[in-house]
Amino acid sequence: MDRLLGLGTTIDRRRLLGGAGAGALGLTTVALIGCSSEGEEGTDVTPSSSATSSASASASATATADPNAPKRGGIALIDAVEPNFGLLVTSVTNVVATMQESMFDRLIRQGANFTPELSAAETYEWNDDFTKLTVKLKPGLEFHDGKPITADTIRETIEWFVSDKSGANQVKQPLSDVATNVIDDHTIEITTPEPRPWLDDTMTLMWIVDVETIDTIADAKVVNGSGPFKFKSYTPQVGYELERFEKYHVAEQPYLDGITAKILPDQSARDLAIQTGDIQWMRNVPFSSVKALTNDDNVSVQIVTPGGMSGVNTIGMVVDHPALADPRVRLAFAYALDVDQIASDWTDGIITEGWRWPWAPGSAGDRAARDAGVADAVSYDPEKAKGLLAEAGYDTGMTLPIQIPSIQDRTVFVQLVQSYLQDIGVNLDIQVMETAAFMDSFRKRELEALYFTPTSSASRMHPATMFNGNIMGQPNVSHVQTEAFSDFRAKVNVLDPHSAEGQANLAEFARLWSQDDPFMLAVVPNGNQVAARSELKNWQTVDDRATIPGEWWLDA
Q: What is the pTM of this model?
């Protein structure tokens, strides 16, 4: 029999969210940059969004008595890159994350300590074997144009995400075989063919869309979401404006009247803008700027590494490129890199240890690799790298293109990698692409040979989440389609990663990754550096819960 659990309760199998005063429970969630968490044996219950809403309303009501309570009003000035509106609801990168969080909503989101938190859902409940998810929507939900959001809207959203129109593989693949059943205007059942507790990860990435207007988003004229802010205007190379959505379902939110995002020409301009107050918030602060901004009394910088790390910065390899078809070439590249030194040099000493795995420390995948004795299979050994290249017939060296997006300090990272590859006779042709163009090629799996990408990970992540996106899904950006990889993916979706069989499967992937058929070079842990001025409040990530713009407020 289903149970509603009160605040402070713990259970061994987390599966219920919602109900009046009930805790936010769930097995897995994913962070805004793709970080996801893996369920532990038990966890404290965290407040549901309805409880959070009540707390927000109470705080607002006592604002005059408490100077730290949220204040209404004001326009937040933030940094932005040139957005690709066509990828607005399908991308899972930081490039468009702020726009997504501002203009769109989802059923659940990541809460504190990686527990799911209700958003548009009033209740969110799995059955005992994790094959049927029942979601009840909050009453009175609307899109920005006034159209009601119903259970049919959620059904249509799922159908759109699994169609050829979306291209959002990290959502599309996990939902491609689910069945939906609309019970009433506010309730929908989602049934999976096998136990799928990790589907919560997917749901935190599935933005609720209006299928009648979704095709107009790419034109940057009509963006009909249901998040805390409405789209107002966009000027190419200048920026965009958002305004408060008065019918947002969280009491008193958003606190801001609006958001003005400015597209600045380069990192120097971004740094100067936040120091002078021309902008008040900046995502994707490069490590090269962190120390200077930290020394400014009016600016705070937070390095967010959920669950120990938020992923790994990697060099991906397209395995059917002629020069990369031989696994010995790809393995040689791994031996050529001193990942610890690259980490220290790239982050200006902020991170001093590199990382050769897609898994976060302490995760099921990391533990499997270490227990199997293959975690340290590859270390810095340029002579071994040269020998592998010679065996593959490349003793005279080679030149390969590497494609990277024009965000953060990716070029510096790749130049550091290049310096080590040059020691074994490999030269890189660094091709910096406009970010939107890079993401489009990435999504379409049209990158040529080498490419830069961060992977998403966290210590409590369910491994299946990582293997249902563009990076490691099928098809994937590296064009990996071996039988061994396919067998691994089929098992990782259904096995308990903590079981003996699940650990054995993860250990086999570790051997594939590090020894037999590598297709990505993990190098440096991936954090998300965010900077803000002192007048902007409540923007920080706390206990792995990232605040969304609707929760920000200005004290000016």
A: 0.76
